[in-house]
Amino acid sequence: MGRITARRPVRRITAGGEVRRPDSLAVEEPMEIRVDGRSLAVTMRTPGDDIDLVHGFLLTEGVIGSREDISVARYCDGIDEEGLNTYNVLDVALAPGVEPPQVGMERNFYTTSSCGVCGKASLDAVKLTSRYSPAQDPVTVTTTVLSALPDTLRGTQKVFDSTGGLHAAGLFTAAGELLIAREDVGRHNAVDKVIGWAVRSGRVPLRGCVLMVSGRASFELVQKAVMAGVPVLAAISAPSSLAVALGAEAGVTVVGFVRGSNMNVYSVVDRVLNPIDDGK
């Protein structure tokens, strides 16, 4: 497995002067995803939890619906200039009877660490049909629980502490219990790693769960929540207009600007209970 941090010399300049010293950077490397030996996607990611990443990616792209749809996932030979395996090529064998993905002009699976939907031909191409329906989930979550999630998620970000350069995603119960958290240089990869863990654990659809992300809530992250059956997506920063529209259409509660006791609820607003308003 590749390193998740790298040390590089830096010239640090402050008001009090300057110093030259090593600094820690988050590693960003390409990973090629193959399905049955055929190249499907290249994503820029932080090495680690790659098997989870691939499971999550394939589920949120509609290729699989459960862990039983994959027979095996294994690294292929990817040799660097020193003859060492880079662990940057991963091949997935689908189970018998599972249809392979059809890659055409409508979909471009090349992704980057900053925007997983960049390059896709149209919005229609990314409005996938989920096997699960967040709209049917009766779960509710309190503002008290939601307000505690950012600090809990931040407490899991060990690599961020040393680099300051990673996004994070965490999966919680409606009572605020942390199930899993993952870091990655790409926010969509962090979410795929979390969802992939859930796929491999047999937890999908993720009914009764809250997905918390460290940045903004984009259309793509809401799409991933829909595909995994997640009823609530909360973010520290803002959602986009299209993210909110998809949340309302698919039945995902989108919560933004979760900072302390303050937050904005943008879609399916009745899932969020406010004890103060209830007089409790």
Basic shape:
flat
**Approximately how much helix is present in the residues?**
10-25%
Number of E-type strands: 14
Q: Uncertain segments of ≥5 residues (pLDDT<50)?
A: 119-123
| Chain-averaged pLDDT | 86
CATH topology of the largest domain: Cytidine Deaminase, domain 2
Question: Number of helical segments?
Answer: 7
Defining key terms:
280 residues, alpha/beta, 2 domains, flat, Cytidine Deaminase, domain 2, 6-stranded mixed beta sheet, 4-stranded mixed beta sheet, Ubiquitin-like (UB roll)
Explained architecture:
The protein is of the alpha/beta class. It folds into two domains: 98 residues, Ubiquitin-like (UB roll); 140 residues, Cytidine Deaminase, domain 2, CATH 3.40.140. The protein contains seven helices and 14 strands. Strands 9-8-10-11-12-13 form a six-stranded mixed β-sheet, with helices on both faces. The relative contact order is 0.15.
Summarize the structure.
The chain has about 280 residues and is of the alpha/beta class. Helices cover about 25% and strands about 30% of the residues. Helix 5 (about 185-200) runs parallel beside helix 6 and helix 6 (about 220-230) packs parallel to helix 7.
Blueprint (SSEs and pairs):
Layout: E1 5-14, E2 17-26, E3 29-35, E4 38-45, H1 50-60, E5 70-75, E6 89-94, H2 123-126, E7 141-142, H3 143-154, H4 158-163, E8 167-173, E9 178-184, H5 187-200, E10 209-213, H6 219-228, E11 232-235, H7 241-250, E12 253-259, E13 262-265, E14 272-273
